[in-house]
Amino acid sequence: MMNDEEVILVNFWSSPFGCRVKIAMEEKGIPYKYIEEDLFNKSSFLSAINPVHKKVPVLVHNHKPICESLNILEYVDEIWSDRSPRFLASDPHQRAQARFWANFIDRELYEASQKIYIGKGEEQVVGKNEVLRILKLVEGELGDKPFFGGDNLGLVDITLVPFYSRFYTWETFGKFSIEEECPGLMAWAKRGTSWYAMANKRPNSGTRRDSGEFESRNPSRYAEGILEPLRGGLQELDHHPTIFSLQKPQELFKRTLVIPDHKR
Ligand SMILES: N[C@@H](CCC(=O)N[C@@H](CS)C(=O)NCC(=O)O)C(=O)O
């Protein structure tokens, strides 16, 4: 990597999509600057680098923005192809399969899971069943392999593992146990937390906006917060417990990051 290269990740701390990019960067050992975007008060910079969706994450490499997390993962793998691990295999069929599963997770899991904690009654049950259907299919694809990518993590692993931090929330609101329903997938998720935590343990350098304040004050907590973002905080809420329905979602973010000692 050339010294004068500029790599910036624009993200929002709780984004599972942005977390994919952090894992990719840390796994390949690519230094980058981090800019925390305030999604509740979006910057003109975000509009400039992602004019179509105005969403994070965006990777800005030598002043050129790359949007969409899966797209970014492939870009990172391609640009820094000399750095291991490779997220995509050299075999075209394996690559196609990995893209299929990464897209499947991307399109289906997030949406289905939202029904569990935004929906009520029957919709919540539908969400739970959808999530379980998806997780079981994904578990079948994992089979006996340690990682989706084989012996090393790959595109599918990086795509899925940030959702592990939400399993607890899904289970709490859906009243089910992923461990019981998908033991193989849970074993994989636990293996994944080591690189997941690694991606978050180093304090990021660079500019921060206000919503990143907590992270800069307390980077080690940030790692745990990302691992278990909604644990604890949601249990304390006595009204509709979704981050999307709160008038001040930032308040929940702050609360949920502070994990009580007995829950560590
Ligand atoms: N498909 C996109 C999803 C990105 C996404 O939904 N980002 C959320 C944060 S988790 C966002 O920026 N939301 C702002 C908005 O919807 O306006 C990706 O994979 O990068």
UniProtKB/TrEMBL annotation:
GO MF: glutathione transferase activity
Positions of the GST N-terminal domain: 5-84
Keyword annotations from UniProtKB, A to Z: Transferase
Reactions that this protein is recorded to catalyse: RX + glutathione = an S-substituted glutathione + a halide anion + H(+)
Domain GST C-terminal: 91-214
CDD domains for the chain: GST_C_Tau, GST_N_Tau
GO biological process terms, semicolon-separated: glutathione metabolic process
InterPro entries for this protein: Glutathione-S-Trfase_C-like, Glutathione-S-Trfase_C_sf, Glutathione_S-Trfase, Glutathione_S-Trfase_N, GST_C_Tau, Omega/Tau-like, Thioredoxin-like_sf
EC number: 2.5.1.18
One cellular component term from this protein's GO annotations in UniProt: cytoplasm
EC class (word): transferase
Protein name in UniProt: glutathione transferase
Species assigned in the record: Mikania micrantha
